[in-house]
Amino acid sequence: MNLVEVFAGVLLNRGQFSATMNPLDIRSGVETRARQSEGTSDSAIYKMVAEVLDKRPVGGLLADVGCGVGNLWPFVRHRFAGYVGVDVIRYDGFPSDARFSKVDFDSGKVSLADDSVDAVAAVEVIEHLENPRAFMREIVRLVKPGGWVVVTTPNQLSVLSLLTIIFKQRFSAFQDVHYPAHIVALLEVDLLRIARECGLVQIKIVYSNQGRLILTPWHYPRWLARAFPRALSDNVLLVGQKRTE
Questions:
Q1: Residue 237 belongs to a domain with what CATH number?
Q2: Number of folded domains in the chain?
Q3: E-strand spans in 19-112?
Q4: Distances in Å between the alpha carbon of 189 and those of 44, 163, 215?
Q5: Which of 25, 54, 127, 209 has the fewest CB atoms lying closer than 10 Å?
Q6: In terms of residue numbers, what domain contains 94?
Q7: Under DSSP, is residue 201 helix (H, G, I), strand (E, B) or coil?
Q8: What is the pLDDT of residues 163-204, one digit of tens each?
Q9: Where are the beta strands (DSSP E) in the chain?
Q10: Residues 185, 191: contact at Cβ < 8 Å?
Q11: Rounded to 5 degrees, what are φ and ψ at 144?
């Protein structure tokens, strides 16, 4: 399977993949696989993205690469004049007042021009791709000089994930039930290295401050997660700025 196929096929299956999906189904049609995803992420992740963007001088046009049903837009629309969602398919429920751009399967590239948006968000997308560096280069290409790039992914350094490694020899968000949706587990250091390789500056790591208690459906109190964000957050975010030179 080549990068183009994977980029197009799993770009937007953002962690809500069916637990009963057979791994062989990764070879099925792109749109068929995409429709098996609900195209959503946890609201804590969208809030994390919104809080990060609120602290930066953003505006203009936001590209939500891996937009799903467009649930990020209500959290950030007060900061931007426009929004374009990018996905394999246009999901039911995608905002009627938002612009949509379909991924170009032939080239494996987002069908937006270089330096055409003011910010890019890729929420729970990068862990689905065979080549996260190629993906990061692609979304950096879209952003104007001085614009911002935001990427989120499961936090492999949480207590939950590290204990899962010890007892099950795999990260919490990369167990059999998550395959073939989640295929690349990235550590915080990987995100930082990739961002620097892509020429981003003003790079920062942020945590969701929401983490599930081990062996329960409940979450740690927010005050406790804020005190120990890396250990008690299920998701991590990287934000960086494209060089202006």
A1: 3.40.50.150
A2: 1
A3: 61-65, 82-87, 99-102
A4: 22, 19, 27
A5: 54
A6: 3-242
A7: strand
A8: 999 999 989 888 888 887 788 899 999 999 999 999 999 999
A9: 61-65, 82-87, 99-102, 117-122, 143-154, 200-207, 235-242
A10: no
A11: -65, 150
